[in-house]
UniProtKB/TrEMBL annotation:
The keyword Cytoplasm does not apply. The chain crosses the membrane at residues 42-61, 81-101, 330-356, 403-423, 429-453. It is a multi-pass membrane protein. This is Man(5)GlcNAc(2)-PP-dolichol translocation protein RFT1. It is found in: Endoplasmic reticulum membrane. The keyword tRNA-binding does not apply. InterPro entries: RFT1.
Length: 512
C-alpha cells in the first residue's frame, strides 16, 4: 500500500510538472507580448482582482481541503463535505465584494464590473470542489494536471485576446481583460474536472452529488457529513486564516505602502520569480502532502487481523519512508538553493530585459527580481516542510502552529515596516520581508518534523539535508567571479552577458 502511494505520488508529481511546464511555456510567450501593451498601473490593479478571487476561494475551501487530505473517511464522505465550500463561497464572496466596493479602490475603467465578474468566477470554481476532492482521494493526478493546464492556457488566450482587440480598436478596457481571463480559467477548470471525474465516479461507485452514507455509528451528521471531518475542518480554519495573512501579506502590505506603479513592478517580479515555484515546487508540495498523510496515518486499525506488534512495525516502516522522502526532497532543494543564490541575482535582470523589454528593466523591476532570487529557495523549502506539518500534526499541534504563525505575522509586519518605511527600500524591501517570513516558518516546520520523527523512534537529522562545505564556499565565490568578468563578452551585447553567466553557472552547478 505504501509503495503504491509513493509510486502514484511520484508519477503524479512528474506528470503535473511536465504539464505545468508545457502550459506555462505557452502562456509565458503570450504574457511577454502582453506586458508590452500594459502599464504598471493596470498590472497593479490586476493584483487586486487576483487577491480577491484567491481570498474568496481560500476562506471557502482551504480548511476543508486539508481536512479531507489528512483524514480518509471514504471518497463519498469527502465529496459530501466539499459542498460546504460551495455554500460558504456565496456569503464570503459577497462580503469581500462589498468591502472592496466601499473601500477607496483605484479609479480605473470597468473595475466595478470586473469585481462582479470575479465574484461569479469564484462561485463557478467552487462548483468543481466535489470533483477536486474525488481526484485527490483517488490520486488522479493526471486529471488534475490536465484541468489546471487547460485552464491556464484558456485564461491566457482570453486575457491576451481582449487586450490585443482593445489595442486594435483604440478601446480602454482597464482590468476587464483580467477579469474575463479569470472567468475563463474557472469555467474551463470546472468543466474538465467534472467531465473527467464523472466516469471514474460511476466506475468506483461514488457520486459527485451529496449522498446518504450508510453507517451504524453516530459519526455522521444527518447521515451526510462526517463529524470527525467537520471537527478537523473547524480546528483548521483559524490556522488557515493566519496562513492566508502570511501568504497574501505581501499583497496587502504593498497595497498599503506602495503606489499602483510600484505594485505593478512588484507583481511582475513576483510573477517571474514565482514561475519556477508554480511549475516545479507546487506539484511536489501537493503530491507530498497527500503522501505524508497516508504514510504517517495511524495504521493500527488498518486490519482487524493484524496484531498490535505487526501493525506497529508496519507503521514504523511507513514513517521511515516518510522521513527518507522528506530528507531527500529537502536536500535537493538545498543544493538547488546554492545555485539560485550564486547565479540568480546576476542572471535575473538580464533575462527580464530579454523577455519584457527595457521599459520594465528601467522601471526597477530587474533589481527587484534579482532580490527575489533569494526568496525562491525559501518558498520551495517552506512549501514541502509545511506540507508535512499540515499532513501529520494533531489538532493540538495545529493550534500551537496557529499561535506561532500569528507571531510570525507580527515579525513579518515589523520587518516590512523596517524595510519599506525606515529603510525606504520599496518593492525590494517587501521581498526581503518575505524572506524573513519564510525563514521563520521554515524554522518552525523543521523543528516540528524533527520532534515528530523523534517520537516515532525514526532518525531525521537536519545536517543530512545540508550541502557540503566546499559547495557553500564556492557559492560565496561565484558572485565575485561574475562581477569580475563583467564586460568580458560585452561586444556581443546582452547575448554575450547571458553566455558568460550561463557558462559560469553551468560549471558551478556541475561542481555542486
Amino acid at each position: 500500500m505504501a509503495e503504491d502511494s509513493i509510486s502514484a505520488s511520484a508519477k503524479g508529481a512528474t506528470f503535473m510538472v511536465l504539464l505545468q511546464v508545457g502550459s506555462r511555456a505557452i502562456t509565458f510567450a503570450l504574457n511577454q507580448i502582453l506586458l508590452r501593451f500594459l502599464s504598471p498601473k493596470i498590472l497593479g490593479v490586476a493584483v487586486y482582482l487576483e487577491l480577491y478571487i484567491h481570498s474568496s476561494l481560500y476562506f471557502s475551501r482551504e480548511s476543508l481541503r486539508i481536512a479531507t487530505q489528512r483524514r480518509s473517511d471514504g471518497v463519498q464522505a469527502a465529496v459530501n463535505i466539499s459542498y460546504l465550500a460551495i455554500v460558504a463561497g456565496l456569503p464570503v464572496g459577497a462580503l469581500m465584494t462589498e468591502l472592496l466596493l466601499r473601500s477607496n479602490y483605484p479609479n480605473v475603467p470597468y473595475l466595478t464590473t470586473s469585481l462582479r465578474i470575479s465574484q461569479l468566477t469564484a462561485v463557478i470554481e467552487l462548483l468543481s470542489e466535489p470533483a477536486f476532492v474525488a481526484v485527490q482521494q483517488n490520486m488522479l493526478y493526471k486529471t488534475r494536471a490536465a484541468a489546471e493546464a487547460t485552464a491556464v492556457i484558456v485564461k491566457t488566450f482570453v486575457t491576451a485576446g481582449l487586450v490585443f482587440w482593445a489595442q486594435g480598436q483604440g478601446q480602454e478596457l482597464g482590468v476587464l481583460p483580467f477579469a474575463a481571463g479569470e472567468l475563463a480559467y474557472s469555467t474551463s477548470l470546472t468543466i474538465v474536472y467534472l467531465t473527467q471525474t464523472a466516469p471514474v465516479a460511476r466506475l468506483k461507485g461514488f457520486s459527485l452529488f451529496p449522498k446518504w452514507v450508510q453507517t451504524s455509528t453516530r459519526q455522521y451528521a444527518f447521515s451526510l457529513l462526517s463529524k470527525p471531518l467537520l471537527y478537523l475542518s473547524a480546528s483548521l480554519y483559524l490556522q488557515t486564516a493566519i496562513k492566508w495573512a502570511l501568504t497574501e501579506g505581501d499583497k496587502l502590505l504593498v497595497g498599503f505602502f506602495a503606489t499602483l506603479e510600484d505594485q505593478g513592478i512588484y507583481a511582475v517580479s513576483a510573477n517571474y520569480g514565482g514561475l519556477i515555484a508554480r511549475m516545479l515546487f507546487r506539484p511536489v508540495e501537493d503530491s507530498s502532502r497527500n503522501l505524508f498523510a497516508k504514510l504517517c496515518s495511524d495504521t493500527k486499525s488498518k486490519s482487524d487481523s493484524d496484531d498490535e506488534k505487526t501493525a506497529t512495525k508496519h507503521n514504523n516502516g511507513n514513517v521511515k519512508q516518510a522521513s527518507t522522502i522528506l530528507r531527500d526532497i529537502l536536500r535537493i532543494y538545498s543544493i538547488a538553493s546554492l545555485i539560485t543564490f550564486a547565479v540568480g541575482p546576476t542572471a535575473a535582470p538580464l533575462l527580464l530585459q530579454v523577455v519584457a523589454g527595457n521599459k520594465w528593466t528601467d522601471s526597477g523591476a530587474g533589481e527587484v527580481l534579482a532580490t527575489y532570487c533569494y526568496c525562491i529557495p525559501l518558498l520551495a523549502i517552506n512549501g514541502v516542510s509545511e506540507a508535512f506539518v499540515s499532513a501529520t500534526a494533531s489538532p493540538a499541534e495545529l493550534q500551537r502552529q496557529s499561535f506561532w504563525m500569528g507571531a510570525f505575522t507580527v515579525g513579518f509586519g515589523l520587518s516590512a515596516f523596517v524595510f519599506l518605511r525606515v529603510l525606504e527600500m520599496g518593492a525590494q524591501g517587501l521581498v526581503l520581508a518575505n524572506c524573513v517570513n519564510m525563514a521563520l516558518r521554515i524554522v518552525f516546520n523543521l523543528s516540528f518534523a524533527t520532534h515528530f520523527f523523534e517520537r516515532q523512534g525514526v532518525e531525521f537529522k537536519l545536517r543530512d539535508i545540508l550541502p557540503n562545505l566546499y559547495a557553500g564556499g564556492a557559492t560565496a565565490v561565484v558572485p565575485s567571479l561574475l562581477a569580475r568578468t563583467q564586460g568580458l563578452l560585452g561586444r556581443y551585447g546582452i547575448l554575450g552577458d547571458l553566455v558568460r553567466v550561463g557558462a559560469i553557472g553551468a560549471v558551478f552547478a556541475a561542481f555542486t
